[in-house]
Structures are given as C-alpha cells and as structure tokens.
Amino acid sequence: MKTPRLGFFLLLAGALTLAATFTRAAETAGLVYELRTYTTHPGKMPDLMARFRDHTRRIFEKHGMVNIAYWTPADAKDGAADKLVYLLSHKSRDAAMASWKAFSADPEWQEVAKKSELNGKIVAKVDRLFLSATDYTHAMDTGNKAGGPPRVFEMRTYTATEGKLAAVDARFRDHTIGFFAKHGITNLGYFHPTDADKGAATTLLYFLAYPSRDAATASWKNFREDAAWVKVRTESEKDGKIVAKADPLFLTAVDFSAVK
Fold first, then answer.
1. Residue 28: its pLDDT value, please?
2. pLDDT at residue 145 is higher than 90
3. If we measure between CA atoms, which residue out of 163, 173, 170 comes closest to residue 21?
4. Domain residues of the chain, as ranges?
5. CA distance linking residue 102 with residue 88, whole number of Å
C-alpha cells in the first residue's frame, strides 16, 4: 500500500514527465526543418566554409531562417573533403519558400556569391530534404559547455518495413530513446520527411551525439547486448521486422555550428 507521501511524489513525478512532454512539443510545434547537403567542386570546400562562416549564416537569419547545426562527414568515404551537411528550421513550409526567395534576391548575398566565385563555382550539387519533428523529439542540445571537448555526431536514416513506420516510432518513443540515454548516447532530434516522394511514410531520420568515436562503438555494443532491450526488440518484431534498412553517417561539427 502506498503511503500518502509516496503517492504525492509519484503524482509529482508524473506531472513533471507530462510537463516535459508538453515542453518538448511546444519547442518544435509547427516548425519545418530543412536538411541540406552541399557537394563542392574539387578543392572548393575551404571557400564554401569561409562563405558560410563569414556571410551565409548571417544572411539566412536576416531572412527568417534559423541555423541549427552544420557538419561535415567524418570519414573520407562519405565525403569529408567535399560535403557540408546542415540543418535549418522555418516557421512553416511557406515561410521557408519566402525566406529562400528573399535570400536569393538579397543584393548583399548576390555580391557575396559573386565575389566568392571569382575563381569558379563553389557548389556542384545541392540535396534538400524537408522534415517534420516527431512527437518524441525536442530542441537539440547544443553541447556548448565551456571547455567541453567536441562531440562526435551520427545521422541515422531508418527505412521502415512497409506499413511499419508507426511501429518504429512507437518503439523509439516508448523504449529506444531511453535505452540510448542509459548507454551514454545523446538523443538530439528525430524527424520524418514531409514529402511522399522523399519517404514520408517510410523514413525516420535522427541525430545522435557521443563523447568520442570509441564511445559510440562501446555504447552501441552495450545497447545491443542489453537484455531488456533485446526483449523489447523481440516483442516489437513478433509479427516481423519493422526496420528494413539502417544507414549511419558519422559527422563532425564545423567551427561555426551552434550544435557542437
């Protein structure tokens, strides 16, 4: 039998959990996210970085875009020398379109672009993906603690088995994110593509952070071997696998990223 004091603390814990859930929802409600990957022409990565560092991010903000994070792939095979991956947020999809139109037409930006390309074009390819936050995500932990070491990041893209995206979300919402935290993995953000032709019904894209690459390896080993997690996974897959494919990409935050 619960004592009155114990009952009070259980009620308080429940209320705090509920409040945290509402806070997370409020932080991301209605926002549209945009993940962009730029591939540079050979040898032009320093020029792209300088343009973003000195000009582009500020002009983005001028036109209502919010800079969240900027990374480069950590490994050469994934484009460490020629790719910039970054995440923005907008108030809505229409706001995103309006911001990009105003940015492109801004005389300051046009002058910056012209000067930066005097020796040739910088960007060879742009990949764009609009995202919506899941109900179990929250504003990204920037990690910018004074004197703190830089973290290692990972973007993981899960393709659900047909008709199983809701089951993937349920497993993450109710179990996986808790197990990640238990094993030293920092949950940063969980998203779905907003467009059908980009995987809206099948894709979960999420970001994690670790103290180091070795820590990432150790954390995943401990996570996968956790008996409680194995039980959850087995139960969730009693009617078949729910994840058809998982694509990991390790990332390194650039010096001008808000998330480090």
1. 54
2. no
3. 173
4. 32-132, 135-253
5. 16
How confident is the model at residue 149, as a pLDDT?
A: 80
pLDDT surpasses 60 at 101:
yes
Q: Is 235 within 8 Å of 171 (Cβ atoms)?
A: no
> Could you give the 3-state DSSP secondary structure of residue 175?
helix
pLDDT score recorded for residue 11:
36
Q: How far apart are CA 119 and CA 143, in angstroms?
A: 37
* CA-to-CA dists, residue 200 to 132, 166, 168, angstroms: 9, 12, 13
Mention the CATH class of domain 135-253.
alpha beta
Rounded to 5°, angle at Cα 69 from 106 and 31 = 75
Contact 109, 58 (CB under 8 A): no
Distance from C-alpha of 243 to C-alpha of 155, rounded to nearest angstrom:
16
How far, in Å, CA of 30 to CA of 194, rounded? 12
Q: Where are the beta strands (DSSP E) in the chain?
A: 32-40, 66-73, 83-90, 123-133, 152-160, 186-193, 203-210, 243-253
Does position 1 have pLDDT exceeding 60, yes or no? Answer: no
Q: Label the pairing between strands 66-73 and 243-253.
A: antiparallel
Rg (CA), the chain: 21
The region of weakest confidence among 8-22, 42-56, 136-150, 245-259 is: 8-22
The yes-or-no answer to whether 32-132 and 135-253 have a common fold is yes
pTM exceeds cut of 0.85? yes
Please count the other Cβ atoms lying within 10 Å of the Cβ belonging to residue 63. Answer: 17
